[in-house]
Automatic annotation (TrEMBL):
Claim: Signal is one of the keywords in the record: yes
SUPFAM superfamilies: Periplasmic binding protein-like I
Places the protein is found: Cell envelope
Stated name of the protein: Ribose transport system substrate-binding protein
Compositionally biased residues, Low complexity: 30-50
Family annotation (PROSITE patterns): PROKAR_LIPOPROTEIN, TAT
Superkingdom of source: Bacteria
Amino acid sequence: MSENVARRGFLAGGVGGAVLLATAACTSNQPAAEPSAQGSAPAPAPAASGNDQPGEKVVIGFSAPAADHGWIAAIAKNAEAAAKQYSDVEFKPVEPTNDINAQISAVESLIAAKVNALVILPNDGQQLNQIALQATAAGIPVVNLDRVFPDKLAYRTWIGGDNYGMGVAAGHYVGKKLKDKGVANPVIVEIQGIATLPLTQDRSKGFADALKTYGFSVTAKQDAQFTVETGNKVAANLLQAHKKIDAMWNHDDDQGVGVLAAINEAGRKEFFMVGGAGSANAMREIQSGGSVLEATVTYSPTMASSAIKLARLIAQGKGMSDLVENQVPQSITLASETITKENVQTYLPLGFES
């Protein structure tokens, strides 16, 4: 989106088996979820067997927002790294941009170049829906990455994170901890990304629904636009408005840099905090044991690696080798897992830098 949203698995070896691992590695959004290979590290080189054997040469176009945010930067990095694994893939990225019209023009250039498949992370799914429809009408399959196009005719396959599941995971961590501590009527604050976006609304709904199972609700919430500066300002305002807080959920680890700075500046330590996305700096805070940040729930940018692998299979007319069906699924939702001090060592090498 033009608002520069940060949104957020990992395919090891054959894309079929790996997507199954990514979607099944964590079947629960409970806080104690088992870790799986999820993060921003480039995928390992695929084994030369099954779907990974060289096939028909294909050109994959790629368009995403500007990499001026840690999560988005990891998206671009992972897409390029995945494409480089295949001798039969020509990776054709266009200039990343946060301008809607510029992204539309860039995708138009890829359509004119007659690429074999397109991977698009739109700035705004609604506003780029028409250009995705044009690509599809031109016979170019579109892999819609993360921010969904509203018209299903606009894309062949969607792959992305579970925004509702992020909220559920965070809500269970917060709810269970407060319940175990015997806290009654807790003050729970929530720092969103951009409040008007469907992805943010899904996260907030998941959080509220999970808290409800413990008899809790959000006391106050405010959006921070997914930026460090706004995160700092919003956190400072919430800290000033609430002299005592029991728990905080911040939707995004990139804006969390500013949130943590405000907390440290205010000298507040009476509450615990849960982050979102799984950045390396957030994991280091968790690992230190001396921060209010105790956990983060994942939204892995390695979905971009998976998107490239899926685009290759679709362009070559292949299915996912570990599935019975002959075609790649229409939709793949990755699980959101909870990183705590107990499992952070497993995740840390895979985190993206904010």
